[in-house]
């Protein structure tokens, strides 16, 4: 059985940077407690590995009164950042992905210019919650797709308006563009900001191509990872024999019965060592 591994599988730039900053903190601050606000990335195996190094995730700024706090790669809300910075006993290390930080800055700027802000993404995802916090609560909303576009927005075709459209960095271009098309008939001003990370687009394109060439697809990554879930959905739409796993032990021998070629891809938070373990397990099952 032949295995075809996506060259884009595994850590993206932002995730690699965040993990490296966390590991460096253990060396720079050996005598202080080190925490992350929320899981630093959406991969439980990496989070567990960091906990073994003494880096512990917290749910809220209220959970700590001193020490080193590392902001997760998905970013935090403006209110959480303000609260952390107000405590002189806390040192903040910002591991927010630069692409996420850029999106936050755009939202803040559009708020100042009085735009209605629409974010295409998962409204309960930490990244999107953070983006919303930089806007005006009354004029900033998140929608998952064109079907959630508020009627009051698309019905104001005759009234002047100012709308700014952004995307969660791991969104697909197709979904983002479908929302943008809903705004085309509107009069007034609409500004579309492509805040989708190129690594996300490249990963989706390569995974789609591999799915068309193989008999089975294995997508590796945390079940809470938005970009991994989207990879799985994309591959599943092309290759019905697609499976999303977190760890090698979740592989099933029956998936590979009669299979000639297997495609393997992974989300942006999946470490190389975990991908290698999955490939080793697939070889043992074939």
Protein described:
The chain is α/β, with parallel strands linked by helices. The chain folds into three domains: 2-10 and 198-285, 4-hydroxy-3-methylbut-2-enyl diphosphate reductase, catalytic domain (Cobalt-precorrin-4 Transmethylase, domain 1), CATH 3.40.1010; 13-96, Rossmann fold (3-Layer(aba) Sandwich), CATH 3.40.50.11270; 99-192, Cobalt-precorrin-4 Transmethylase, domain 1 (3-Layer(aba) Sandwich). It has ten helices and twelve strands. The chain has helices at residues 13-28, 44-52, 78-85, 98-112, 126-133, 151-154, 173-183, 198-213, 226-238, 272-285, and strands spanning 2-5, 34-37, 55-58, 67-71, 90-94, 116-120, 140-143, 162-167, 189-192, 216-220, 242-245, 261-266. β4 (67-71), α3 (78-85) and β5 (90-94) form a beta-alpha-beta unit. α4 packs parallel to α5. The longest helix is centred in the N-terminal third of the chain and has 16 residues, at 13-28.
